[in-house]
Design a protein that fits this description.
The protein is α/β, with parallel strands linked by helices. Helix content is about 55%, strand content about 10%.
Length: about 280
């Protein structure tokens, strides 16, 4: 009886990595990542806080973007500002979450906010601008890009003087504030579940301030749209900085103390300090 021949074992294909995002734990690693990108790849850095609800929601999205084939020309790293504040200070980070884009070791673009669509747009825009399909920089289109930027800048000088610019600026701020309200409401819900009464009270007050700012901007947008249709150029009067809402002075003192200690503040806390300074100046 002839011996049985064993069937060749089929090798399993290894699955593609779910993420290419790496954590940075020192300034030397941060500089090495920027040097690794050089002029062939774009480096994207995510600065986050582990204690911030919005950062917890955005970190998996950033990691998922890093594994997309369309973003293969990008290097993705992240920095925990709670643990490694010296790296955040080196990069000039004032708010979180912040996403920075580096090319050839130079900061070329950044975004601070909680909108995943804006984060993705930042990645797509810079990879398309600085890298071709083969991963090499698009030096051949530099002169054309400079001409386009110059023409856009000249056109923007005329556009800023028009009512359309006022309306568009107000519309962008309204969208940003609506996103912040959604984030604040979700954070408030988590605080109420954890029975954190004092922080929940401050969060409700923040939501009231954001809603007041939103209503003021909506009035500005409506007035600008109406005057533009009538052929008048409105003045950029009401903005979210012009609406001053009283805040808790103990809360202001606590935030100022944290800032003096070198801690990275939330975006909402930066807004509270900005409003308080506006009260003092005026």
């Amino acid at each position: 009886m002839p011996p049985r021949r064993r069937k060749p074992t089929q090798t399993r294909k290894t699955a593609a990595p779910k993420t290419r995002c790496r954590s940075i734990t020192s300034i030397s690693q941060f500089k090495a990542a920027l040097e690794k990108g050089g002029t062939k790849k774009v480096v994207f850095v995510q600065f986050y806080q582990t204690s911030m609800w919005a950062c917890k929601q955005l970190r998996p999205i950033f990691s998922r973007y890093s594994a997309l084939p369309s973003f293969k020309n990008g290097i993705f790293v992240e920095v925990d500002t709670d643990e490694y504040g010296d790296i955040a200070n080196e990069a000039g980070i004032k708010r979180v979450p912040t996403y920075q884009c580096y090319f050839d070791g130079t900061l070329v673009d950044s975004y601070t906010g909680t909108a995943p669509s804006e984060m993705r747009d930042l990645i797509e825009r810079n990879i398309k601008e600085y890298c071709s399909s083969s991963g090499m920089p698009i030096w051949s289109s530099v002169l054309g890009a400079i001409a386009v930027v110059g023409a856009a800048w000249a056109a923007s000088l005329k556009f800023k003087a028009s009512g359309e610019h006022v309306a568009q600026n107000a519309r962008e701020q309204i969208l940003d504030i609506k996103q912040r309200i959604v984030t604040a409401q979700a954070r408030l819900k988590n605080m109420e579940k954890a029975n954190r009464g004092k922080q929940a009270k401050a969060q409700r007050k923040l939501i009231e301030q954001l809603n007041a700012q939103r209503r003021a901007l909506e009035r500005t947008h409506q007035a600008a749209t109406t005057k533009t249709q009538n052929g008048q150029v409105p003045k950029a009067g009401a903005s979210r900085d012009s609406l001053l809402v009283d805040v808790d002075y103990d809360e202001i003192a606590r935030i100022r103390y944290r800032k003096r200690q070198g801690e990275v503040l939330y975006s909402d806390e930066e807004d509270i300090l900005e409003q308080a300074n506006h009260h003092v100046l005026h």
